[in-house]
Amino acid sequence: MSETTRQDSVQQGNGKVQTSHHPETDPNRKDKHYYGIPPIKHAHWTWQVPVYFWIGGIGAGVQMFSTVAQILGHGDKDLQRVSRYTVLVTMVLSPILLIWDLGRPERFLNMMRVIKLRSPMSTQSWSLVAFGNLAGLIAARQAAEDGLLGTDNVLVRLTKLIPDRLLSLLALPVGLNVGSNTGNLISATSVPIWARNWVFMGPVFLTSGLSTALSWLSLYLRLTRSGRPETLHALHRAEKATILIEAGLIAASLFRMSRWAKPLFSKTVAPLFVGGTLIGGIAAPFALLRGEEDRRKSILASVLVLIGGLAFRFAMIRAGRISADDPEAYFTFTSGENAPQPEDKV
């Protein structure tokens, strides 16, 4: 035995040899599993992915609100115009950001070869394509009505034949899937903090997307001093209600995550989650929106909600990396109640 090995190996009182490597005999080791090596790899997503989650959520939320307004017979042309162009822009940017993160366009195209209804990645890819095409047709009809395609030509006459109201109804369920499936997608992984919250992850992302969408619509209409008073009033009330629902879902998520929510309160993620999301994106806007409507307060609240929605997505992604890199979190998560049971349908 070499001198170095003799120094690393110490005979303990119970007869076991203490080494500097074994997790059961080295009292100085804090990790007791897998020699401190993470058993799963964390997501190597770049900044484009949380931004894509944020933009996609805004597009889905705008589609939801504008379609409900259409169903209820609310005919605000300013709301209709900004809604249709917003959804188009978000659905143009979302695939670009996703492909940018993937590195090569063919990786996105490969996901178009087949459709797997039980795969969140596959359904998300197809939903983006379907929602984007529907948004493009609806926005083209709006552009024709706004005179952006000319005054009287064949293209304008053909474009005005697009059944925009019917397509808006068809786009609603697809948009809802785009907004919620981002949460379902990350919860379908083995990352403890995401997988543990599979019940609420989709609803939280969808509600956060609706919250940011309402704030965007309110911000645009108030800054441009457009939109009917009843539209602004409806947005004001909807913003408050959505913020409350979002707060409740986040609270339920933290309860559901239990011990595995710890990364959200870590030194690197807490400024985004606690400061940016809970305080800046929920508590402060709700306080500003309380009481009588005020244009300046509403504008500030909308800006805070938009920033808070972006901070929430960055916080979830960073917390997921910390959770994946923690062997203790993984092994405690995959044991006990979280372990697959024989009767589970996989």
Automatic annotation (TrEMBL):
Pfam families: NrfD
Composition-biased stretches (Polar residues): 1-20
Key word Transmembrane helix present: yes
Location in or out of the cell: Cell membrane
Its membrane topology: Multi-pass membrane protein
Region (Disordered): 1-33
One annotated Gene Ontology cellular component of this protein: plasma membrane
Keywords: Cell membrane, Membrane, Transmembrane, Transmembrane helix
Residues that span the membrane, as ranges: 51-73, 85-103, 166-186, 198-221, 241-257, 269-289, 298-317
Superkingdom of source: Bacteria
Transmembrane keyword on record: yes
Similarity comment: family membership: Belongs to the NrfD family.
Protein name as catalogued: Polysulfide reductase
